[in-house]
Design a protein that fits this description.
With 470 residues, the protein is α/β, with parallel strands linked by helices. 47% of the residues lie in helices and 14% in strands. Bound molecules: adenosine-5'-diphosphate and magnesium ion (MG). Magnesium ion is lined by residues 85-86, 327.
């Protein structure tokens, strides 16, 4: 097909007389020709986000508009530093916010989050109340994440599965095994039964009195049997103390790290379902410089789990969609991210992932992204990365084209149920900054004071809980 024909079939729906086909939904990427609107009128962002202009002889001045239906098939953004990846995310997230759609941006650097806050449209109070900044480095006002806040047994199983995956990640392979996961499962079940916190796990493992107290009202015979017969057997004899020490060490991150303890030691806190249902903008600031990379990664994985759980459980009817943005996605290379890539499109949720190079992704995550995602924004690539991604953009753009892209220029490829679209895009510059540092700090602190609790309160509650188990 010549480029001219390709263009006319996309640009001229009136030439393409057919009834709407809802089985094979129409491609959502639209190239809007200047001829279709009055001169000088910038394209409106009513339904679709405007990312930039297509370049090339036949496509000149046509805009890359990506609407939510296209985006929920997934978008992967890749390219060298400072080419404009985070700025593309910034535009999309601000667009979600303007549309009242729920969105979550997870930013391992912190710069993107501030960039978004600086540009939030100044509207009314209610609008700003939709913005939640989760900043674990705000030690004075920690916002809680309650992993044990499961609404039903499905969510409980999800949380248990995740905790096993998480513990497995920090456990050398030779020390993993069914006994460890059995302990985790039963400890979490016991906490689910009577409203415990994650930080209480080490208490359960070390204090028979705490177990006895928590078992009081438990009716599940298997759970009772485990704590009354199996666990005492495991810790009996000479190996007992080392078994307890071994298992509690797995949870020491939650209990001993003061920053994490004050987040996971709270009951309630950040409600991920509300973010979806009420169209909030959740900005997760994992500034590695401040938090340390291990802690940031740990928090990132937990946020990811909470997002997955919320999306999987939210009924499609109550939502106008939900978007999740993961900058520096190689930091989140876990099983549940791979599940999210395939499950989100069916759940009316968009997953947008960005990082420098597809080479930095683990093999399985890379396969999941390159195999299942429908949209790609490929900025300038290094040598190895270019040869990996050229299969996506050929025959129009080969590895040399991808290596010689200018800053803020990218090759967009979008797969729809119709034909594949590939074109070179000049990305729009970031929107104007609207708020100074004082306002940004105010917006950041708002959620902390409304959802979070003051540090002394959280610590006092934990001390009280420990005392009651004596
Ligand atoms: N289309 C653009 N036009 C002009 N400047 C841009 C554009 N996109 C991004 N920038 C600027 O370039 C710099 C790097 O952008 P950023 O999105 O942070 O890159 P990356 O995430 O790829 O490292 C930022 O200062 C940003 O404001
Ligand atoms: Mg960036």
């Amino acid at each position: 097909m010549t480029r001219a024909r390709e263009r006319s079939s996309i640009l001229s729906p009136q030439n393409d007389l057919h009834m709407p086909n809802f089985e094979r939904s129409e491609p959502r990427l639209r190239l809007v020709s200047n001829a279709e609107r009055p001169a000088q009128t910038p394209p409106r962002e009513s339904g679709a986000a405007n990312l930039g202009t297509f370049e090339g002889r036949s496509l000149s001045h046509d805009h890359l508009l990506v609407d939510f239906d296209q985006l929920r098939r997934g978008l992967y953004i890749s390219g060298q530093p400072r080419v404009g990846k985070s700025t593309a995310i910034l535009r999309l997230a601000l667009h979600d916010f303007a549309q009242g759609r729920g969105a979550c941006v997870v930013d391992p650097d912190g710069e993107l989050i501030n960039g978004i806050i600086e540009r939030l449209p100044p509207r009314n109070q209610a609008d700003l109340d939709r913005v939640i900044v989760f900043d674990p480095a705000n030690l004075e006002w920690p916002i809680g994440i309650d992993l044990l806040d499961a609404k039903d047994s499905f969510e409980e199983d999800y949380a248990i599965q995740f905790m096993n995956e998480l513990i497995e990640r920090i456990t050398p392979w030779f020390a993993r095994g069914p006994i460890l996961s059995q302990i985790i499962r039963n400890a979490m079940r016991l906490l689910f039964e009577n409203g415990g916190r994650l930080t209480d796990i080490s208490q359960i493992l070390t204090s028979p009195a705490a177990v006895k107290q928590r078992l009081g009202a438990v009716t599940d015979p298997l759970l009772r049997r485990y704590w009354e017969h199996v666990w005492p057997m495991l810790i009996k004899g000479g190996d007992g103390p080392s078994t307890v020490a071994y298992v509690t060490s797995k949870f020491s991150q939650f209990v001993e790290d003061r920053c994490l303890r004050n987040i996971f030691g709270q009951r309630g806190g950040l409600d991920f379902r509300r973010v979806i249902d009420e169209g909030q903008l959740l900005l997760v600031d994992l500034a590695r410089g401040t938090l340390g990379s291990q802690r940031a990664q740990f928090l990132g994985l937990i946020v990811l789990h909470c997002l997955e759980r919320a999306v999987m459980r939210a009924p499609a009817s109550t939502r106008g969609g939900f978007s999740v943005y993961l900058d520096e996605v190689h930091e989140f290379d876990v099983e549940n991210l791979r599940r999210m890539i395939t499950a989100f499109p069916k759940k009316h949720a968009a997953l947008v992932m960005a990082n420098q190079s597809a080479d930095d992704l683990g093999i399985r995550l890379r396969e999941a992204i390159l195999g299942s995602v429908a949209n790609f924004l490929v900025f300038r690539q290094g040598l190895d990365a270019a040869s990996r991604l050229e299969a996506l953009t050929q025959p129009r753009f080969d590895d040399r084209d991808l290596m010689s892209l200018k800053d803020h220029h990218a090759v967009y490829r979008g797969d729809t149920t119709g034909p594949r679209r590939v074109g070179r895009v000049a990305l729009s510059p970031p929107p104007r900054v609207l708020h100074d540092a004082r306002i940004v700090a105010e917006i950041r602190q708002r959620a902390a004071t409304s959802i979070g609790k003051e540090k002394w309160m959280v610590e006092a509650m934990m001390v009280a809980s420990l005392a009651s188990d004596k």
